């Protein structure tokens, strides 16, 4: 088993915490990854934020009693005034009307420009509370406390916040970086199995796009991971966060194209999610299938060999992720892919692997090759 | 009559345009001030934006036919796809629900990350459309075409965008800088008298806080200004924009305290507006009265002499602005001032003049002095 790179261990609030730095000039921040660290949260927050006298903990109803209440108590112990708000669990809470309700609650709770939002939950809460923090008096500080695996390895890092319009996901939002990301793997103990496995889809993605060593580590340690052995889980999260932090540090606002590599598998995945009906597949499951389609497309375009696909297939399958999608319908998926936000002027563009640990942005891809890649993944 | 400083005339799209630069590194932009320049708008927009294939003109119902339609036509002439949307005129359009409706319209009109918002209207439209531009796919470019005097000298410059909550103005928004501010004084021909005079309140403010030469010019030329003589109006707008641009360039996000000088008279004005009932006074009228209260407070605290107040009083009065407010009620105003966003931790802080052209931030001001200053302005 590979061990943690020493450069991933920083000055951290507890001896066994791993710290990953997101380097963004005056918007830099630290991601702490550790287990059973609730009692250390308040002092870490204080250290990251400097002065903090009023915190608004925002969470969802499922996470509230399990985890958010305990964190709120820790903050209160150090003399911070804490208010807490729980929205209904699930994607529908990422709506404009929930956004307004939340902002009105913030105002009523006496928030001002020095108040701090602490988002405790999965990606829904991070995105919603993050956008509320970005917008309240044109921006107050916020802390991400991700509680789903997906949120730990993806949505809590990088500053993308936002909500949905009825017909389009994540259409409204802001780039707004947190002041701290606090990952306590203990909370995963209550995360449903399917959510955990789904999150592994994004973990494997980092191996393919950015980190061949990590991919190898995953091939050797998937069993420990799906057994949720703590050391393995912490390592996988830290490695994933390190990859995401590197990419975000180079292309914070998705302007240079570098950040696009994070979308490996995603153009296909979004089309699968849209055509299968949202909710049929979990996001990480759709990403797994999307990566399979992307790898097949890369082979078709002679960007990589069959071995890459075989290794990816085996790893996804070992982790319990789907590798085919019976209901994939190329005719329905194509128009969705052409409307994808990441598509330039209606031309099909994909992030495609060249070898494990490395991808290219490939523009102007032939439709028939795309259709083939979809049909082979049924 | 003082003439334009030569450093205010830049490379501009027409020989008689004045250009003021807002210096904000990669978010820098130009404010063009000129008259009867509609035919030049499209090429100036293209020059400022580089590629532009889809524009969304956002306006209000009153401004739509008068001015926005003509600008949309100019854009169409150069081959840009243009969509146009008019919201009801007035402050109620700065609501979360109007914000959502607007974003859904943007999506339905086929907007993507390269689309551009052009806000044609007063401060309501600039604030609403600017926040929509800031939020749509986490930020697309936008152009300010202010049509009220207040919007020309204040709200269109500096990147503050936002909407209201039912109980708090401008509580939700973003700092989002335009790519271009296009001021055509011709549109003022249809602006109601009271709006024009109200805008002069902010113009005079710049003289007091930042520009003694300009204050002198105003003392000599107020008659030309209230007669809306074009040269005088252009000069006053350019000088006001230059002051605002300087301040914003030093303190974009209101963090250093420098930007606070723009709030001269405003802590009083907000309390007047809130206690008199919104709509009784126009904003610039409340600012005029607020500046009178602030000058009296400065005298009381021995920061400046009586002469400053006398000159300010005469200029405001000549311009047709109110200098007293019969219904001012110190008991009602004080609690509002203590809740003001600009107040630090409940302590009363004011921007107070030390001489014409120069102000200080004065903290921890005695309540009785504030009450006195209010009572003397009745
Ligand atoms: N901002 C970004 O960069 C980014 C990136 C990827 C995804 N996202 C967004 O993230 C969202 C999906 O995230 P998600 O999968 O975390 O969804 P989620 O927040 O809805 O969480 C999934 C479910 O798990 C529950 N849950 C979370 N943590 C738990 C825990 N520790 N124990 C028990 N239950 C728990 C939640 O209540 C919810 O029902 C989507 O809205 C997506 O758009 C954002
Ligand atoms: N963003 C900032 O920095 C900033 C600064 C100051 C004020 N503001 C905001 O600006 C708003 C007030 O601005 P405003 O006074 O321009 O209000 P406004 O946009 O409501 O315009 C006032 C009225 O004049 C009409 N109008 C505008 N231009 C016209 C023209 N050329 N001819 C005829 N009618 C015209 C409008 O339809 C409206 O009825 C407030 O919401 C305030 O919060 C923002
Ligand atoms: Zn994803
Ligand atoms: Zn004002």
Explained architecture:
Two copies of one chain form a homodimer. With 378 residues, chain A is α/β, with parallel strands linked by helices. Chain A folds into two domains: 156 residues, Rossmann fold; 183 residues, Dehydroquinate synthase-like, alpha domain. The first copy, chain A, contains 13 helices and eleven strands. Chain A has a seven-stranded mixed beta sheet, sandwiched between helices. In chain A, strands 7-8 form a two-stranded antiparallel ribbon. In chain A, strands 10-11 form a two-stranded antiparallel sheet. In chain A, a hairpin with a 2-residue loop joins β10 and β11. In chain A, α5 packs parallel to α6, α6 runs parallel beside α10 and α7 packs antiparallel against α8. The radius of gyration of chain A is 20 Å and the shape is globular. Chain A starts with 17 loop residues before the first strand and ends with a helix. The N terminus of chain A is likely disordered. Chains A and B meet through α3, β7 and β8 of A and α3, β7 and β8 of B. The complex binds nicotinamide-adenine-dinucleotide (2 copies) and zinc ion (ZN) (2 copies). The site of one nicotinamide-adenine-dinucleotide has 30 residues of chain B, from α2, α4, α5 and β8.
